[in-house]
Structure formats: structure tokens, C-alpha cells
Amino acid sequence: MNIDKFDRQILLILQKEGRINNQELADRIGLSPSPCLRRVRALEEAGLVTGYRAVLDAKKLGLTLIALIHISMDAHTPERFASFEAAVGLLPEVLECLLITGQAADYQLKVAVRDMDHYQALLLGHLTRIPGVSGVHSSFVLRSVLKDAVLPVDAIA
């Protein structure tokens, strides 16, 4: 799919304001509503827009502790990785799971929990029990400096 300046503007605005109505979006990018809606639908159908969701306040929901967990695996096989990824996909506390390089770890997880007791239950009751997990290193987030960043769509050609 060729992405032009209108598509880039649409993508940028939708990342920040997913609930914007089509008329306002069209006005902001300088198109009439009909072609704007066609473009949005084309971006969705092409898989560039994968969904819309509400952003919740973790602290107000009682999830006051965010941890970054580096996980080392005992074997680097597709089956071991698939098994691990399936297991962490079932844990609601896991916000993000990244297969990484350049560290002693194989995965980085971002988790949200109520408190240290909840973290301990997640760690000892679930994560360390996943077959293949050979090491765990945790860091705790003191403060979020930048979050909900948008992809730099202006940088794509």
C-alpha cells in the first residue's frame, strides 16, 4: 500500500485521538468526509490500523506496581519459545512480552500488579514455573517519563 501525506496525517491523528469522528478528521486533514472514510477503511483493511481501545489509568485501578522482567530460557528452540509465549499470553498481568537480543535475557516482560505480594505470586506461582525458564531479573518502574508514544509516521517514505 502506498502511503501519502493524507494517510500519514490520518495515522498520526488516529494514534492520538482514536475516537475522533470522521467529519472532524476530514476537516483536520483537508479532505471531504467520504474520501477520508475510504482512506481510514483502507488503512484498517491493509492492517496498518489494528484496533482502537481505551487507555486506562493503572494506579486508579489499584495496579500500582509496574515491573520489567528479563527472562532467560534454558534452550533456544522454536518449541521452547512457542511454549513460553503461549504461557505468558495467558497471564493478565503481562502487558507486553518482547523477544530481545543484546542482553543476557531472551525476553522482556512488562507487568502491572497491585503490590509486591501480587508480584511475588506472579513470579513464584507462574513465571518461574513455565518450562524452560532458567533465570529471572526484575526492575521496578519508579516513574513513567514517556508513555503512549505514537509511531513516527512522518518518517515513513
UniProtKB/TrEMBL annotation:
<keyword id="KW-0238">DNA-binding</keyword>
<dbReference type="Pfam" id="PF01037">
    <property type="entry name" value="AsnC_trans_reg"/>
</dbReference>
<dbReference type="InterPro" id="IPR011991">
    <property type="entry name" value="ArsR-like_HTH"/>
</dbReference>
<dbReference type="InterPro" id="IPR000485">
    <property type="entry name" value="AsnC-type_HTH_dom"/>
</dbReference>
<protein>
    <submittedName>
        <fullName>Lrp/AsnC family transcriptional regulator</fullName>
    </submittedName>
</protein>
<dbReference type="InterPro" id="IPR036388">
    <property type="entry name" value="WH-like_DNA-bd_sf"/>
</dbReference>
<dbReference type="Pfam" id="PF13412">
    <property type="entry name" value="HTH_24"/>
</dbReference>
<dbReference type="InterPro" id="IPR011008">
    <property type="entry name" value="Dimeric_a/b-barrel"/>
</dbReference>
<dbReference type="InterPro" id="IPR019888">
    <property type="entry name" value="Tscrpt_reg_AsnC-like"/>
</dbReference>
<keyword id="KW-0804">Transcription</keyword>
<keyword id="KW-0805">Transcription regulation</keyword>
<dbReference type="InterPro" id="IPR036390">
    <property type="entry name" value="WH_DNA-bd_sf"/>
</dbReference>
<dbReference type="InterPro" id="IPR019887">
    <property type="entry name" value="Tscrpt_reg_AsnC/Lrp_C"/>
</dbReference>
<feature type="domain" description="HTH asnC-type">
    <location>
        <begin position="3"/>
        <end position="64"/>
    </location>
</feature>
